[in-house]
Write a structure and sequence with these properties.
The complex is a heterodimer of chains A (501) and B (360). Chain A is an alpha+beta fold and 501 residues long. Chain A has a domain at 369-431: Dna Ligase, domain 1 (2-Layer Sandwich). Chain A has helices at residues 37-46, 48-65, 93-117, 122-125, 131-135, 183-196, 198-203, 212-222, 256-266, 322-327, 351-359, 376-384, 410-422, and strands spanning 68-70, 79-81, 84-91, 157-164, 170-176, 244-248, 269-272, 276-279, 282-287, 290-293, 296-299, 332-334, 366-367, 371-372, 389-393, 402-404, 427-431, 437-442, 445-454, 456-459, 463-465, 470-474, 488-495. In chain A, a hairpin with an 8-residue loop joins strand 15 (389-393) and strand 16 (402-404). The longest helix of chain A has 25 residues, at 93-117. Chain B has 360 residues and is mostly helical. Chain B has one domain (3-324, 335-339). Chain B contains 17 helices and no strands. Chain B has helices at 3-32, 45-50, 54-60, 69-77, 86-99, 106-119, 122-130, 132-153, 158-180, 183-187, 197-209, 213-220, 226-235, 243-260, 268-282, 285-291, 293-316. The chains are: A alpha+beta (501), B mainly alpha (360). At the A-B interface, helix 2, helix 9, strand 7, strand 8 and strand 9 of A face helix 1, helix 5 and helix 6 of B.
């Protein structure tokens, strides 16, 4: 019997970008961009049917590996696989170089800002930004003024959310300098990608992301208090007498998988708050061999739940006395306490000014125009134009508590208007940016879907940027919200090595 | 290592061993009850009783369902409300593994997670209906795979020692319980060589329940008698599931753990194991059979529980250690549920310690 020859359908056959947006793969005239040209040819050769099979393989790899996140609204408290799209997002070496420098600059300025507002407050006395905004921020911890963490490092780990404007330029959308998550998916995505599309991967010089846990471990150990035992080797080894742990809220936290993943890859222990206690302003871990002193805590718990003695006496969560140990300089918290003031969304409009003030440089990365609702003209403009704007709570994250004006209903907008009148300091507004799109597999074909990029920046004795980051993609055709908690998915992010177009 | 982690390691392997044991029990008894001579109440009641599940079974399934193969197998296999079901054991094994994913190897996690995904799938249901023997065999293979991968992918140090300690104690526990299924027959046949073919068949099924058939015949090359079977399962030094062997293994592992945790004096846990070993080695099998095998088996089960309690005080709750007793160091949160074992199952007859096990 003869098998009828089925013509292989090229993968990108009918793909067409959305008008008025920047597509990561194709120009408005349908030409593939130079950095993806080779990838597009390779994927076209693979064909639709084969691609679909590889996509299924990737899905089951994630399920079997248990690479999941928990969803709070899900009543069964279920774990879900973070949807993964097999078409990578590609960034050229040249473009990444600019982004990398811009990120380093920004994190450095934010770090100096924290050092300043918890110290001399020069930026306030020189009126570069309004003191009431800073001191009135819910993330600002007045009681910690005068406490300087080892090396003056506040932001050991930053996740800076970038988007690409319709002109193709990267803009900073949001800074995350408290407990940014997502890096484990970057590493897992890469692993699955190599398994599912080895031949395609081989053709391009994609920069490795596997170093991240090692660099993170070194960053943490480097940041140990000076009172910690001297390190015998540089870079620090796992046998270092300096002890670091990852502190997690536990298996019910949405990012638990990541906490466990990073602890495992760094070779340090994953602790719950109940595994730690404080005596004489020192932190100890409860082990089978008795209490052992801990010098560095990579904590993935929000400030408010770290220490009931300091934050909320009624709480049962946290490690009583932890802040006193931190203030006494006996333990390093990564990230430091009180960072929320630096990623307060009402402070965000002033970051370019911070860069000029602290570094005497011009910002390398642009950011999104922002209306500060505590200013009267901004407030009135926002209320009059809610149908055009995106409104966000200043201390929100994860896509919770925001209003997408253009797609919201009349009553949702009215509800938000009431909230804004009650608490103007609590919100900011931004025009909705046409996020860039990338080809994404949607059941039967590739279609353009909007995406952002969260690169990760580590700061110890120096600043290091992970090549790439987490590309999050909004899976709905008309969706602009990429958060995993809101039905987003992710893509592997390829930063090409120098010398590749 | 973190005490909480040690606790999860210990329970992780206990649950895997329980899943394996329950799969074996279900598949063996399933074939056993096909023998026409068993009257209907004999079919599943002894099994449910030794698992300590009589009350719950009668409440959830009914008092008159001991002859109902499907109902009994469902109870032992998929029933979520039954703490002894394979479903429950695999669930808790995976939950414990999930809590210590950074401690166990990736392969171990993936083996367990894949097993769980399969067990919860329609494919597993289909296989269960179509070929139950194959279904149970697969569960036992997955458990064995987990054990094999653990030993070949983990560092042979404290975390693995806690896991293997859990395994050893759980095995002793399971063997003692399964011996109790037919204890009245074992005890009543002290006379050598006067076994009817029917009785012989019963001893063979007893051996099968404990996965001991082949090994028994390698050791004895003679017809199984109650006395030989009891002797073999209780204290053959080389049979991996004998109570003696399991306790010897537990003693070795505990020695490693004591060294790693820098204990100079023997802990209460190791004293309890030592006392059990001394008892097992020093007692004549005939006096055990005369004195009541059931009491002897209850003693084994109770010792396993006691050792668990001592382990908790010795290693798992260092706030009890004299050196470290800060007032604020009680675990403030409710203990994560995964570390909390399902209630410890008890033999049916009123054992003096019906209620322990909540100790964890």
């Amino acid at each position: 019997m003869t098998i009828p020859a089925v013509p292989k359908l090229p993968l990108f056959g009918d793909y067409a970008p959305i008008e008025g947006t920047y597509d990561e793969f194709f120009s408005a005239t349908g030409q593939s961009r130079p950095e993806v040209a080779q990838l597009v040819r390779a994927l076209d050769r693979l064909g639709q049917r084969e691609f679909q099979q590889r996509q299924q393989l990737a899905n089951s790899a994630f399920l079997n590996a248990g690479v999941t996140f928990s969803v709070y609204s899900d009543e069964r408290g279920g774990e879900r696989v973070f949807p993964f799209d097999l078409i990578p997002r590609v960034i050229s070496a040249q473009e990444w170089d600019r982004v990398e420098r811009g990120l380093g600059q920004r994190v450095q300025a934010l770090n100096l800002f924290l050092h300043d507002v918890y110290g001399k407050q020069a930026i306030l006395s020189e009126d570069v930004l309004p003191a009431r905004l800073v001191l009135g921020s819910s993330g600002y911890l007045e009681r910690l003024r005068g406490v300087t963490p080892p090396g003056g490092v506040y932001i050991h780990v930053a996740g800076i959310d970038l988007i690409r404007s319709p002109t193709g330029e990267f803009l900073v959308l949001e800074d995350n300098v408290r407990t940014p998550s997502g890096v484990s998916y970057v590493l897992e995505n890469r692993g699955v990608m190599k398994r599912a599309l080895p031949s395609v991967f081989k053709k391009l010089h994609v920069r490795s992301v596997d170093d991240y846990p090692t660099v993170l471990r070194d960053t943490l150990l480097e940041s140990a208090p000076s009172s910690a035992p001297a390190r015998s080797s540089t870079p620090p080894s796992p046998d270092s007498p300096v002890r670091a742990v990852v502190l997690t809220p536990g298996p019910f936290n949405s990012a638990y998988f990541e906490h466990s993943f990073l602890a495992g890859r760094m070779g340090c222990e994953l602790a719950y708050a109940s595994d730690l206690f404080v005596r004489d302003k020192k932190v100890y871990l409860k082990t089978t061999a008795g209490p052992q002193q801990i010098h560095v805590i990579y904590r993935r718990i929000d400030d408010a739940y770290l220490d009931p003695e300091f934050f909320r006496p009624d709480s049962l969560l946290g490690v009583p006395g932890l802040v006193s140990a931190y203030a006494a300089g006996n333990v390093t918290l990564a990230n430091a306490l009180g960072n929320g003031v630096a990623d307060d969304k009402a402070i965000y409009p002033y970051v370019p000014e911070m860069i000029r003030f602290y570094l005497s440089e011009e910002p390398l990365l642009e950011q999104v125009q922002t209306y500060n609702l505590s200013r009267k003209p901004d407030f009135e403009y926002t209320l009059g134009n809610l149908d055009k704007l995106v409104v966000k709570a200043v201390d929100g994250s994860g896509g919770y508590g925001m209003l997408m004006g253009p797609t919201a209903s009349e009553s949702e907008r009215a509800e938000f208007a009431t909230k804004l009148r009650e608490n103007p300091r609590g919100y900011i507004a931004q025009p909705r940016i046409e996020l860039s799109t990338a080809p994404t597999w949607c059941d039967t074909e590739l279609a353009p879907r909007r995406l952002d990029l969260r690169p990760f920046v580590l700061t110890g004795k120096k600043v290091w940027v992970l090549p790439g980051g987490l590309s999050r993609v909004a899976l709905g055709a008309n969706s602009y919200v990429v958060n995993s908690s809101q039905g987003g998915g992710s893509k592997d992010t390829w930063v090409l090595g120098a010398g590749v177009p | 290592m973190i005490s909480r982690v040690a606790d999860s390691c210990f329970w992780l392997n206990r649950y895997v061993e329980r899943a394996e044991s329950c799969a074996r029990l279900a598949s063996v008894n399933r074939l056993l009850v096909l023998d026409a001579e068993l009257d209907s109440a004999e079919r599943w009641k002894p099994v449910i009783v030794v698992l300590g599940e009589q009350a719950r079974f009668e409440e959830l399934v009914g008092t008159d369902h001991y002859h109902d193969d499907d109902a009994a197998l469902e109870y032992l296999t998929f029933n979520q409300k039954s703490p002894v079901s394979i479903q429950s054991s695999l669930y808790w094994a995976r939950e414990n593994a999930r809590m210590i994913r950074e401690v166990i190897s990736r392969e171990m996690w993936e083996t367990l997670n894949t097993a769980w995904q399969w067990f919860s799938s329609k494919a597993a249901q289909r296989e269960y209906k179509k070929d139950p023997s194959q279904f149970y065999r697969r569960i036992r293979s997955l458990c064995a795979e987990f054990g094999g991968i653990s030993e070949s992918t983990m560092l042979h140090e404290e975390p693995l020692d806690f896991m293997l300690l859990g395994l050893a104690l759980e095995r002793a526990n399971q063997t003692a319980r399964l011996m109790d299924v037919k204890h009245h027959r074992l005890a009543s046949s002290d006379r050598e060589n006067v076994e009817t073919p029917w009785q012989s068949a019963q001893w063979i099924s007893q051996l099968k329940l404990c996965s001991a058939e082949e090994t028994f015949f390698k050791r004895h090359r003679a017809a199984p008698t109650g006395r030989r079977v009891a002797e073999f399962l209780l204290r053959d030094p080389k049979f991996p599931r004998s109570v003696l062997h399991c306790f010897e293994r537990a003693a070795e592992l505990l020695e490693n753990i004591e060294a790693a945790a820098e204990r100079s004096a023997p802990t209460a846990s190791s004293k309890a194991i030592g006392a059990m070993l001394e008892h097992l080695r020093g007692t004549k099998i005939s006096s055990v059979l005369h004195g009541g095998l059931h009491d002897e088996l209850t003693r084994v089960v109770d010792t396993v529980v006691l050792v668990g309690e001592h382990l908790h005080r010795d290693f798992l709750d260092p706030t009890e250690a004299p050196e470290a007793r800060p007032p604020e160091s009680r675990p403030p949160e409710p203990r994560p549920p995964a570390a909390k074992p399902a209630e410890e199952v008890q033999p049916a007859a009123q054992s003096q310690s019906q209620k322990q096990g909540a100790a964890e």
